[in-house]
């Protein structure tokens, strides 16, 4: 009897040990760190914009371009990025991508020349595009039994990167740099070198295993096609979530100023830009159960639209609450969409799908807010700046209804490039 009880106890200990070690903590931590630098280098520019403009005699349009140029390059270079990554392998491409981002971001702090500053921003955007297509493709190698959790973790890293890039640069990093914006940019680049070292260690440990896993899963090498049904059904809602967030941040000041609520601007920006962090924490809690649920994507997309309509229709604190609801909804929509490619494809095809939908999403996300800005200026009415993006986001709900949620759903690709 004692032997049986001892055997059962040993089995229970083994079972508990397996359960405790079930989560791949090291890959998850590395995914989070990589996600951190997928957006942080872009968001450190706006807090330093005044110092940069004064040092380089830049106008407001040029200062704004410091933030938009990397995003534009990221969107336009997606196809090139995935083809390059296929040629050298996804993990090697990720290592190189982070090196490029580090050099590009750091180079911005080593110059007092506007052309060099923008050239460095372009280089950084190329590296970010390469990161964006490789990370989802590596999830099946790093977290094969926890795809949803892996997606949620690296997207949480992106969200935190956006928040600390925008919120910690001026009050913390700039002070550490002695008020020098160039040194501040260099300081933000240094931690990325540690992540590069960790990726190199991972590459040296099992480069052959990584190549074999990727090759076994890739099957036929899918090309990117803008005629692919999946690319558009996923890219259009992605554009709606990204575009709403960008347009709201861009035009919030002019809208509140037109309503005589300039005193609420600081709080509005703080609450709105903190809502993605709250959403990403909710995703860490519930994300594994939510990914692949079409109705949830639709609900969160609708919350993003209705919340922003409430912000435009109301004033004071009710408008701020509506604004937070909008930011919360579109962040959850974005996260659920970006987590889908590893669930729908395998190997290199994950990078192709990510690149295609990101190209469509980010390109449209830039066009629609520009249309809104033109309308607001043409009709001298600040609130019109958000209506084209709102109309587009509402229309995107039709794409959500047909968005593929499983690998079995037909792609409907007419051809590939």
TrEMBL record:
The keyword Transmembrane helix applies. Keywords: Membrane, Transmembrane, Transmembrane helix. Gene3D superfamilies: MFS general substrate transporter like domains (1.20.1250.20). The chain crosses the membrane at residues 21-40, 60-82, 89-110, 116-135, 147-169, 181-201, 231-252, 264-283, 295-314, 320-340, 352-372, 378-400. Residues 27-411 form the Major facilitator superfamily (MFS) profile domain. Coiled coil: none annotated. InterPro entries: MFS, MFS_Cyanate_Porter, MFS_dom, MFS_trans_sf. This is MFS transporter. It comes from Salinicola acroporae. The lineage of its organism: Bacteria, Pseudomonadati, Pseudomonadota, Gammaproteobacteria, Oceanospirillales.
């Amino acid at each position: 009897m004692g032997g049986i009880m001892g055997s059962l106890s040993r089995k229970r200990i083994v079972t508990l040990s397996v359960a405790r070690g079930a989560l791949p903590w090291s890959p998850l931590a590395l995914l989070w760190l990589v996600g951190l630098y997928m957006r942080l280098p872009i968001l450190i520019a706006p807090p330093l914009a005044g110092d940069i403009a004064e040092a380089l005699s830049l106008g407001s349009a040029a200062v704004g371009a410091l933030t938009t140029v990397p995003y534009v390059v990221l969107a336009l270079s997606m196809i090139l990025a995935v083809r390059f990554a296929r040629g050298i392998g996804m993990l090697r491409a990720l290592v190189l991508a982070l090196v490029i981002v580090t050099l590009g971001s750091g180079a911005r702090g080593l110059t007092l020349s506007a052309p060099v500053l923008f050239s460095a921003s372009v280089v950084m955007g190329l590296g970010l595009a390469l990161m964006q297509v490789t990370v989802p493709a590596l999830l099946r190698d790093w977290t094969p039994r926890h795809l949803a959790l892996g997606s949620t973790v690296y997207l949480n890293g992106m969200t935190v990167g956006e928040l600390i890039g925008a919120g910690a640069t001026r009050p913390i990093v700039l002070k550490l740099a002695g008020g020098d914006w160039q040194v501040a940019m260099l300081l933000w680049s240094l931690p990325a070198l540690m992540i590069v070292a960790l990726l190199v260690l991972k590459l040296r440990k099992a480069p052959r295993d990584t190549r074999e896993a990727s090759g076994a899963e890739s099957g036929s090498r899918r090309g990117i096609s803008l005629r692919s049904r999946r690319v558009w059904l996923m890219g259009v809602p992605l554009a709606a979530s990204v575009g709403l967030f960008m347009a709201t941040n861009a035009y919030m000041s002019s809208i509140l100023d037109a309503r005589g609520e300039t005193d609420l601007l600081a709080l509005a920006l703080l609450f709105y830009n903190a809502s993605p962090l709250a959403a990403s924490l909710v995703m860490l809690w519930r994300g594994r159960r939510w990914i692949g649920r079409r109705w949830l994507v639709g609900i969160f997309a609708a919350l993003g639209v209705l919340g922003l309509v409430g912000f435009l229709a109301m004033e004071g604190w009710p408008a701020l609450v509506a604004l937070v609801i909008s930011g919360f909804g579109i962040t959850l929509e974005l996260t659920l969409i970006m987590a889908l490619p590893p669930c729908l494809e395998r190997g290199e095809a994950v990078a192709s799908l990510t690149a295609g939908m990101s190209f469509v999403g980010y390109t449209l996300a830039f066009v629609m807010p520009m249309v809104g800005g033109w309308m607001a200026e043409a009709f001298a009415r600040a609130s019109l700046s958000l209506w084209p993006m709102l109309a587009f986001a509402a229309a995107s709900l039709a794409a959500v209804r047909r968005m593929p949620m499983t690998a079995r759903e037909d792609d409907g690709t007419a051809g590939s490039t």
